[in-house]
Structures are given as structure tokens and as C-alpha cells.
Amino acid sequence: MIFALVLVVTPGIVFAQSPQITILTDKQSYVTGDTITLSGKISSLGSSNSAVLQVFNPFNVLVQIGTINLAPDGTFSKTIKAAGESWASDGSYQIKVLYVSTPILATATANVSFKAQSTPVSSQTTPPSQSSTQLPSTSQPTQNPAQTPDDQTSIEEQIKQRIALANKLKQQIENTAAVQIPSWVRDTAQKWHDGTIDNAGFSKDIQYMITSGLVKVSGQITPSTTFEYIPSWQKKVADWWSQGLISDYDYVNSIQYLLDKKIIK
Fold first, then answer.
1. Are strands 29-31 and 62-69 parallel, antiparallel or unpaired?
2. Using alpha carbons only, what angle is made at residue 31 by residues 26 and 35, rounded to the nearest 5 degrees?
């Protein structure tokens, strides 16, 4: 069965067109390891033949971002793997599709339920007896491999992960509110999108976010790191942010995601 979830959100700006985005998911709920099959349609396309896909976990932390290719009639299809550390928390995950092709702006969200499952412990089987007349053993019965302490440890680990994600989100919000992003950062993002500057030039934006604490890094990345590889679809996100079509938080969160996943380097 296919489930349709439709929600169109447009800001308080008058646009020439107001397309509708329909999002379809193959199920309403998923567990660890499932593949979420996403499809849908944008009723009216502009010059852009792609949209941005974002996935937020129950703490509203961005856990996945990418692009969706659109067919000439506006239809699209995409699969998402519900696995890995990004899918460590139970609850409602928000799948967001954002389409911008000036003067068109439309977003749609679909919420799906997710249940994290730990890897099942394989029970060890006893080799079959050589003799069919062997009497049952009088030793103590073997304890079930799925022990209560293991289950408790799994629950405690999930709680720790949820607290860590919640604290990370709170810190990001506080940093974003406390630090005023200079206008030159937005200008640099626009120039990078337009091709006026290269990845090395755009790296100054990321360096500023690291220095100001807007994003957190670890390991070999420093405030002076120059990023040679940045996915081209991030240019579209930078363009939207430079035009004020998405919030500072959404944009900074997309950079944080790229850093966390080591997509940019």
C-alpha cells in the first residue's frame, strides 16, 4: 500500500506560481535496515530540474541531505536507507522536499515513524547427538542469549544518544542566536554559487563558521582548512540561503552535516 502525505508551505511572499508537492512513502513506519521508498510529484516546474531532500530526526537535527532529480513532468523517486548512527533514535522522522526555481518556492514534509532495533544475537545451536537414544542432560539449562542485561545496555545507550543529540541541537541554536553572521559570508556563498569564486574561496565561509563556533569539528579539520571537495548540490542550498529563502539555522546545519559525515574535505 502507498501512503500519501502532502504539506505545502509557502512564506509570506507573493510568487508567480504556487506549485503543490506530493510526497509518497511506501510505508508509514520503518525499523533499522529498512529502505524508505520515496516518490511524488511537483505540479509546476520552473527552470530547475532538481529539488533538495532533507531528513530530520526526532530532535530536529539534520541527519541527511541530498538532491532529487526531477522528470520533465515533475515526478521524482528516491530511496533512503534507515541505517547507521543517524538512525539511532526512535520516533518521528521528518522528510522534507524543498524546490526553488525563482520565482517558485515550495516545500513539503512527510513524517514517518521509526523504531531502532539492535542487531539480534545469534543463538548457538548444539550439534545433533550421534545417538538417538541419548538421555537428556541433567546439567543446568543454557541461558537464553537475549539476556536482560544486554537489553538494558541497549536502552541506556539509546538514551545517551538521544541526550547527546538534544544537547547538540540546543548548542547549535544558542550559537546561531548569539553570533550574528556577517553579510560577507552570505555574499561569498552567492559568489560561490555563481561561479565567481572556487571551493577554496568558499572555504572562507566554512572557516568562519568553525572559528565562530557555529559548527563543531574534530580531528584534522582546523579553522585554516581549505576544502577542495564540496558537493555541487550544496551550491543550490547556498544560493537559497543567500536569497533568504531558507533560515540561517538550516544553512548552518547543512554545513555541520557535511562536516560530520566527512562529505567535504
1. unpaired
2. 45
Separation CA 142–CA 197 (nearest Å): 67
pLDDT, averaged across the chain: 77
The overall longest dimension of the chain from CA atoms, in Å, is 85
Percent of the chain at pLDDT above 70? 69
Asked whether 124 and 86 are in contact (CB, 8 A), the reply is no
Q: Using omega within 30 degrees of 0 as the cis cutoff, is the peptide bond preceding 103 cis?
A: yes
Question: Where exactly are the structural domains of the chain?
Answer: 3-115, 179-260
DSSP state of 102: T
Global confidence as pTM:
0.56
- Output the pLDDT for position 47: 84
Query: Average of pLDDT values for 215-233?
Result: 84
Per residue in 3-29, pLDDT (tens digit) is 555 444 433 333 345 678 999 999 999
Bridge partner residues of 113 (DSSP):
29, 92
The fold for domain 3-115 equals Immunoglobulin-like (2.60.40)
CB 82 within 8 A of CB 66: no
- Map grid coordinates 532495533 to a residue: 117
CB atoms within 10 A of CB 58: 16
